[in-house]
Amino acid sequence: MPQRNNGLEEKALRLIMESENGILQCEMWKRLGLSSREGSRLAQRLEEKGEIERDRVLYEGRWTYKLNSKRRHVSLASIKDSPCLRCDDIDRCFEGGERSPISCEYLTRWIMENSGERRRG
Question: For the whole model, what pTM was predicted?
Answer without folding.
Answer: 0.58
